[in-house]
C-alpha cells in the first residue's frame, strides 16, 4: 500500500536523506564502529597491564618523555597521546561539525533544534548532578566537566553489537548528538581548561590559522602545504596555553565542506575520509591505552562509591545523561517545531539516552585535566570506566528489547509479502504498535 506524504509542518529530524548523504553517513558509522571495538580492546589491555605484575612497566612507558625541549615539546607518552593524537580526533570532529552545519542535519533550525537541545541538556544535567553530589559530600567541584561528554566510538560499537533490526535513524541520531556534544566539549576545553596564556604564541597560532584559511579561500591544493602548517599551528597552540586539541577543531572548521564545480567531494570530506581511520583505529585507542590503566583493587573500587568526586561522575554519566538527553529531546519536540522521526519511538530515544552515558575518551581527558594526579585522579578514572559499563549495560537492556520489537515487525512484513500482500504491512509498523 502506498501512503501519501503529509505536509504537516517542518521536516522531521533525520528524515530520508539523499543518496550521497546516506553513503557519507554509512562511511562514518563503519569507521566509528570499528574504532569503538579497537578502543574497547585498548582499554582492556590497559586495565590488565596496570593491574598485573607488570604494572611498573606500564607506568614507566606512560611517563617516558621524548621530543624537542627547545620547542617546548619534551612530553611524556601519556601527554603526547592526550595533546597530540587526540588533536587528530578533534580535527575529524571539526570537519564533521562543519559538514553538519553547512549541509547536514544542523543546517536548518527545524532539524537542528532537537539534537542541539538534547545534547545541551545531556551536558548540563550531568554537570549539575556532579556538582550537587560532590558538594553534598564536601568534594571538589573541579570535575564538573568529566560526565558531560559522550564517546561516540564506544557508543556506536555497543550499538553495533546490539542492533540487527533497529532503524538506521537511531544510529544517525546518536551521530548527530555526538557532533553537538563534541562542540560542547571543545568549548569547555577552550574556556575552562586554558591557563597561563602566552599572547605571543597564541597570536602566532591565530596567524597560522589565518594562513590556513587563505589557502582554503584560494583553493590551494596539496598536502605539503597543509600538513606542515597544521603541525606548526598545533605546536604554537600547545605553547600558547590553550589545549592543543583546539587547534585540530579550528582547522577542521576551516576546511571547505562543499565541493567546487567539477569536484566529486569537498576537501573536508576527502580529509575526513583519510583521517577517520587514523583517528578511530590509532589515535583514540592509543590515548585509551595510556589513560585507562588504573588500579582496580577492592579499595580503589570502594572509593568510587564512597568519595564524592568519583560518585558524582557515576551519577552524572549514568543518571544525568538519561535525564538530560531524553528530557531535552522530549522538551524540544513538545515546545519547538522539531519533530522526532516517525520511524522512531520514544522508547528508542530512552535507550539512546542511556547509551550516551558512555563517556570514555573525553571523560578520561577531562578527568586528567581536572585532577592531574593523586588518589582522586585514579578514582575518577575508575568511576568513568564503571559508569560507562553501567550505561552500556542499561542501554543494552533497553535496545535489545527494542531490537526484538523491530525484528518481530520485520518478520510480520516478510510474511505479509510472502502472502502476496494480503495483509497491510503499514498496520504493523504504526507508532501505536511500537
Topology (SSEs and partners):
Elements: H1 19-50, H2 55-63, E1 65-66, E2 75-76, H3 77-103, H4 109-136, H5 152-162, H6 168-192, H7 199-217, H8 223-240, H9 245-254, H10 267-289, H11 298-306, H12 308-335, H13 346-355, H14 360-370, H15 375-418, H16 425-428
Antiparallel strand pairs: 1-2
Description:
- This protein has 434 residues and is mainly alpha-helical.
- The protein has a single domain, classed as Na+/H+ antiporter like domain (Na+/H+ antiporter like fold, Up-down Bundle), CATH 1.20.1530.10.
- Helices cover 71% and strands 1% of the residues.
- It contains 16 helices and 2 strands.
- Strand 1 and strand 2 form a beta hairpin.
- Helix 1 packs parallel to helix 10 and helix 4 crosses helix 6.
- The longest helix has 44 residues.
- The N terminus and C terminus are likely disordered.
Widest β-sheet, arrangement of strands: 1-2
CATH superfamily caption = Na+/H+ antiporter like domain
If you average the pLDDT, what whole number results?
82
What's the helical proportion of residues? Answer: over 70%
Number of helices: 16
Unreliable stretches covering 5 or more consecutive residues: 1-7, 423-433
Assign the CATH topology.
Na+/H+ antiporter like fold
Following the backbone from N to C, one meets helices and strands in this order, namely: HHEEHHHHHHHHHHHHHH
Describe the structure concisely.
The protein is mostly helical and 434 residues long.
How would you describe this structure in keywords?
2 strands, two-stranded antiparallel ribbon, 434 residues, mainly alpha, Na+/H+ antiporter like fold
Amino acid at each position: 500500500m502506498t501512503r501519501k506524504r503529509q505536509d504537516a509542518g517542518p521536516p522531521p529530524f533525520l528524515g530520508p536523506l539523499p543518496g550521497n548523504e546516506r553513503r557519507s553517513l554509512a562511511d562514518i558509522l563503519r569507521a566509528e564502529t570499528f574504532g569503538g571495538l579497537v578502543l574497547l580492546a585498548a582499554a582492556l589491555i590497559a586495565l590488565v597491564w596496570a593491574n598485573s605484575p607488570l604494572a611498573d612497566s606500564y607506568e614507566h612507558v606512560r611517563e617516558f618523555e621524548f621530543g624537542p625541549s627547545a620547542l617546548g615539546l619534551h612530553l611524556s607518552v601519556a601527554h603526547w597521546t592526550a595533546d597530540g593524537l587526540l588533536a587528530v580526533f578533534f580535527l575529524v570532529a571539526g570537519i564533521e561539525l562543519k559538514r553538519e552545519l553547512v549541509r547536514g542535519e544542523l543546517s536548518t533550525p527545524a532539524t537542528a533544534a532537537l539534537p542541539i537541545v538534547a545534547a545541551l541538556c545531556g551536558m548540563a544535567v550531568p554537570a549539575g548532578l556532579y556538582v550537587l553530589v560532590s558538594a553534598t559530600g564536601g568534594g571538589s567541584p573541579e570535575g564538573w566537566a568529566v560526565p558531560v561528554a559522550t564517546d561516540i566510538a564506544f557508543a556506536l560499537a555497543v550499538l553495533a553489537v546490539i542492533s540487527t533490526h533497529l532503524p538506521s535513524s537511531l544510529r544517525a541520531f546518536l551521530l548527530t548528538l555526538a557532533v553537538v556534544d563534541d562542540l560542547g566539549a571543545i568549548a569547555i576545553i577552550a574556556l575552562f581548561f586554558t591557563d597561563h596564556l602566552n599572547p605571543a604564541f597564541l597570536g602566532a597560532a591565530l596567524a597560522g590559522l589565518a594562513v590556513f584559511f587563505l589557502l582554503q579561500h584560494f583553493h590551494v591544493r596539496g598536502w605539503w602545504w597543509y600538513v606542515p602548517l597544521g603541525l606548526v599551528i598545533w605546536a604554537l597552540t600547545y605553547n600558547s596555553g590553550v589545549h592543543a586539541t583546539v587547534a585540530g577543531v579550528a582547522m577542521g572548521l576551516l576546511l571547505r565542506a562543499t565541493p567546487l564545480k567539477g569536484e566529486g567531494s569537498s576537501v573536508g570530506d576527502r580529509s575526513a575520509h583519510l583521517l577517520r581511520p587514523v583517528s578511530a583505529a590509532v589515535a583514540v585507542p592509543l590515548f585509551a591505552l595510556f589513560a585507562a590503566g588504573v588500579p582496580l583493587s577492592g579499595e580503589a573500587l570502594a572509593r568510587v562509591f564512597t568519595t564524592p568526586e568519583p560518585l558524582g561522575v557515576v551519577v552524572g554519566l549514568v543518571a544525568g545523561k538519561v535525564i538530560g538527553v531524553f528530557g531535552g529531546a522530549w522538551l524540544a519536540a513538545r515546545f519547538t517545531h522539531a519533530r522526532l522521526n516517525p520511524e522512531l519511538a520514544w522508547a528508542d530515544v530512552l535507550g539512546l539516552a542511556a547509551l550516551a552515558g558512555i563517556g570514555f575518551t573525553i571523560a578520561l581527558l577531562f578527568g586528567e585535566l581536572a585532577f592531574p594526579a593523586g588518589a582522586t585522579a585514579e578514582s575518577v578514572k575508575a568511576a568513568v570506566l564503571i559508569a560507562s559499563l553501567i550505561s552500556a549495560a542499561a542501554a543494552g537492556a533497553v535496545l535489545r528489547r527494542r531490537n526484538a520489537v523491530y525484528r518481530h515487525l520485520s518478520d510480520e512484513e516478510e510474511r505479509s509479502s510472502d502472502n502476496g500482500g494480503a495483509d497491510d504491512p503499514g498496520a504493523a509498523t504504526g507508532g501505536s504498535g511500537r
